[in-house]
Design brief:
Strand content: 35-45%
Helix content: under 10%
Order of helices and strands: EHEEEEEEE
Radius of gyration: 14 Å
Oligomer: single chain
Strand order of the largest sheet: 1-7-6-2-3
Distance between the termini: 21 Å
Largest sheet: 5 strands, antiparallel
């Protein structure tokens, strides 16, 4: 389960009232192994090369309170280590909405593909 970070909460509020106009449409992969925390503002070690750099996702609306992101990455070199994923509002830098640390390392070799699919669900408090 991904962690919605403090910056993500801040920019959700800004998007709602027009304080920001940059939607969260980018997926980034990383090799960092640090546990998820609400005060994180970036991936621990974002990947920037070998076919695994941050990229625009296919975004969608699934149902009331559900937003989706999907992106297929293809490695262009052997030995690529993936441990974390995040959603951002810019192609570089920007603000992170959420971060997930995988329970185990994903290893990709040249031409191997990884499809990342994320569903964000928001609901009313009981």
């Amino acid at each position: 389960m991904a962690t919605l970070v403090n910056t993500g909460l801040e920019y959700i509020a800004k998007l709602i009232n027009g304080g920001s106009t940059a939607p969260f449409t980018y997926i980034a992969l990383g090799s960092g192994t640090t546990v998820e925390a609400i005060d994180q503002t970036a991936l621990v070690t974002e990947l920037t090369a070998n076919g695994l750099a941050r990229a625009a996702a296919t975004c969608g609306y699934e149902a009331i309170g559900k937003a989706t992101w999907s992106k297929e990455f293809t490695a262009t070199a052997d030995g690529q280590t993936i441990n974390e994923v995040g959603i951002f509002d810019a192609a570089t830098a920007g603000h992170m909405l959420m971060r997930h640390k995988y329970s185990s390392t994903k290893m990709l070799d040249n031409t191997e593909r990884l499809t990342v699919s994320i569903v964000f669900t928001e609901g009313r408090a009981p």
